[in-house]
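**Discrete fold encoding**
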Amino acid sequence: MSDSNQAGGQGEFRGNVTRDTFEPAKHFTRVLMQQGRVQLDADWNEQTSILLYYLRSLAADLIGPHGGPDEGFKIESATVGKDSLTFKATAGRYYVDGILCETDEIVFTTQPSFLPLTANMPYLVFLDVWERHITCHEDGDICEVALGTLDTATRAQVVCQVIVPPPMFPDKTELYDQAALKTDVGNRNAANGPTAIQKAQRVLDGFADDVRKKLVALGNASLRARARVGEVADAPCAMSPASQYRGAENQLYRVEIQRGGSAWGGARDQETRQAAGNASQAATFKWSRDNGSVFFPVRTIAGDSVKLATFGPDGRRSLKKDDWVEIVDDDLALQGRAGLLRQIQDIKPDEMTVILSASVPQTYDEKSTTHPLLRRWDQSRSDGDPADNALLLTESSGEDVSNWITLEDGVQIQFPPPSGGATYRAGDYWLIPARVATGDVLWPKQKTSTGAVDTYPSGNPIPAPLPPHGVEHHYAPLAVISLDGTGNITEPPTDLRRKFGPAAQ
């Protein structure tokens, strides 16, 4: 794992894997299997990542940030109901950062929307592209029925969604100026002659590209990880006996943002000692020792009662009282939203049922088509907003134990505060491989400007602050839409796609 690997980004992957070893900065071209050697999933997965990296880099170098060979993803007006106008994206292909996007016709109202659209205002329409992790639960064709219920490989799926990001975020951060966009669109529509039209279009394209870069840059958080150091010893090279990972098995820890926002300021009520200040809006996180891969397909949910299809293959990957679970389905996954966290209050094995600590608003039955599931997380407490039930995220720096958050078995994390403050995005995650053989976690060290390992005053190395491993989103501007006084789309939308080949002629 390295800074370059993290910067490259990955999808939503939650598989039961050893680790992710792909690092673009090492310039590997292939994985060479050797006879008589132990084979690991990480080697095979790295080979796929190497090939995809080269293919997508080639496509992006030739095409640019985005472009398409046909009329795919063209935004057009569409009638929904009797009098309401929305818009649709036409069927076809488009490339975003070298990733091939293919789709049938998409009507916007079938896609997750980030805000209600206000009348008499223009909006930028983007294509949001990312990779989703798909298991047999979401797609039963993946598993071989001859193997019964055995789980084998999983899949990565390219998700292409047409979105309208909000000009203003809830924290009052401006993504773009709607008045300036309205002016640029007006100038484009009023332009006469090829030269004037091209000039106005370039201004509009530049505006949209600046917004695309802002969307890509969302989430500037970082994380450090280490095995517990304990008390700093007096001797320069001495280490505490507690300075190690003490787990009985190799693990791949996943730290994932549950609720986005800024870090908790640390304020507490003087009487109750409960979290106060910005605690109800602050970012929260959850963690798993199995990369979030332990889940349980749901048959029905009614109130606080959940009937499951299975309790898992063994006791270690099952459920017990007081475990924390997240209620997830396809809609939440595609909207990039975290599910509700609830604690297991009781388990009824004979009825294949668990009772949650509180009811949930969603109701699922045997006919539900959104593949609901309970995903297990391994934190043992919740110190955040009761409506969130996750761990409050605090920022810190330094070597002292009080500056670190302990997960379990000596694994510790730290969210360092960057200059200007960090914005934590729901769904972003970090992977921390922990190994019994070394009693440590696999995490790169911070380097000085000369390339040497940077150290604390005690002489211990400083873990590097790494950006999220994923989920990496890729964006491409498709069009500008405008609404009339009744909130209907006016025709025609202003096209912002880039075309190559015969379609560009």
Residues 1-8, 232-239 have pLDDT under 50 and may be disordered. The longest helix spans residues 194-217. The chain has three domains: 3-63, 66-219+472-504, 224-441. The first strand starts at residue 66 and ends at 67.
